[in-house]
Amino acid sequence: MSAFILGIFGLIIGSFLNVVVLRWGEKSVGGRSACMSCGRQLQWYEMIPVLSWLALGGKCRTCRMSISIQYPIVEATTGIVFALIGGSALTLGAQLFGCAIAALLIAISVYDLYHTIIPDAWVYAFAVLALVSQILFSPPGELSIWTVIAGPIAALPLFLLWAVSRGNWMGFGDVKLALGMGWLLGPIYGIAAIFFGFVIGAVISVGILLPLPHIVKLFSRLGITSLPHARGGFTMKSEIPFGPFLVISTFITWLLLIHNVDPLALIGLSP
């Protein structure tokens, strides 16, 4: 399937993911979308992914209240990831599985960012799809016992951190996320992606620990109020969700692999 078609499809799915993240556990994902401030139902031309937000200047057409920049970011990210999957050498079936996996990962990262928790239904669905995709689409002769145990192997380091700290260092949702990472990427690249997730998390965490006004403004623009920086600043004791870092690392590793680029070779290592 062409990258362009899947990219357009991804923009639409990204718009739906925004609704799911916003309404999960609160109300049905069905029903018409409306302004969060004045309650006016939105017209179809106000819901065109990315373009409507840009055309409206990020504000409601009626009450002029700001619309979270989360909406175009999620839509654009989903479209780009879907396009990259569509531009790979994967079969059509594998691409469609990949898009479903990508959508779940994006939803997981955004929800975790807002609520510092990963819904069980989403993370288990990701793990199952990752394992099934390997069983269905692995090249002949490559399916082995390692395919099955890759998930537990990748999740073991985070499980140990969770167990030793009794949940203070690591949430169990991250352990379950790592399970799917291992099945999606295999044992070697799964563990590598978890390591990369720590690196990405460290770099970003150091950045947000600094008293940078534009970061505070970004959190406010996203509508995130559950995290300390949205209220003025992070400290060394602040709780920062790890799920988004794992998802970023997973995407980087996975997208490189499906485009026949070895991420370990890029940094001078080889499996």
Nearest-angstrom radius of gyration? 19 Å
Task: Report the structural category.
Answer: mainly alpha
Order of helices and strands: HHHHHHHHHHH
The main β sheet shows up as: none
Helix share, percent: 55-70%
Question: How many domains make up the coordinates?
Answer: 2
How much beta, percentage-wise? under 5%
Report the count of strand segments: 0
Mean pLDDT: 86
- What low-confidence regions span 5 or more consecutive residues with pLDDT below 50? 225-232
Distance between the termini: 30 Å
Task: Give the overall form.
Answer: globular
Q: Treating each run of at least 4 consecutive H or I residues as one helix, how many helices?
A: 11
Keywords:
single chain, 271 residues, mainly alpha
Task: Explain what this protein looks like in three dimensions.
The chain is mainly α. The protein folds into two domains: 1-87, no CATH class; 92-271, no CATH class. It has helices at 3-23, 51-55, 70-86, 92-115, 120-137, 145-165, 172-185, 187-209, 213-222, 243-258, 263-266. Helix 1 packs antiparallel against helix 3 and helix 4 runs antiparallel to helix 5 (120-137). The longest helix is centred in the middle third of the chain and has 24 residues, at 92-115. The radius of gyration is 19 Å and the shape is globular.
In short:
With 271 residues, the protein is mainly alpha-helical. It folds into two domains: 1-87, no CATH class; 92-271, no CATH class. It contains eleven helices and no strands.
Describe the secondary structure blueprint for this structure.
Elements: H1 3-23, H2 51-55, H3 70-86, H4 92-115, H5 120-137, H6 145-165, H7 172-185, H8 187-209, H9 213-222, H10 243-258, H11 263-266
Helix pairs in contact: 1-3, 1-4, 3-4, 4-5, 4-10, 5-7, 6-7, 6-8, 7-8, 7-10, 8-10
